[in-house]
Amino acid sequence: xxxxxxxxxxxxxxxxxxxxxxxxxxxxxxxxxxxxxxxxxxxxxxxxxxxxxxxxxxxxxxxxxxxxxxxxxxxxxxxxxxxxxxxxxxxxxxxxxxxxxxxxxxxxxxxxxxxxxxxxxxxxxxxxxxxxxxxxxxx
Length: 139
Fold this sequence. Notes:
Structural class: mainly alpha
Strand content: under 5%
Shape: globular
Radius of gyration: 15 Å
Largest sheet: 2 strands, antiparallel
Number of domains: 1
Distance between the termini: 14 Å
Order of helices and strands: HEEHHHH
Helix content: over 70%
Number of helices: 5
């Protein structure tokens, strides 16, 4: 179990840096998101780049996502990866993280924040699912 959890963490971390931020880049480049990808601004408490902090939490979410989808097969696996990926992190961001940061729930119910969050996190979930299925354990 610890080896598969490490793989799921790595899958979540990598999916954040490649898939989540790649989709954010597409949205940013097309003018649909004001937020630039791969934010290197240091964030507390460790003063590491924001994108690395985000990727760490992507790794933690990757473990949880794998626990929820790992036994699924065929189409159910992919649907769960996208749906749970979209909803889990988005709901926590909207109703826990944003209020802690002094923003309203769901960023004041801004449709761009809601749709963007679901799209980014759904793509992230798909990325985790792909990595978990396609990349073999090296040991």
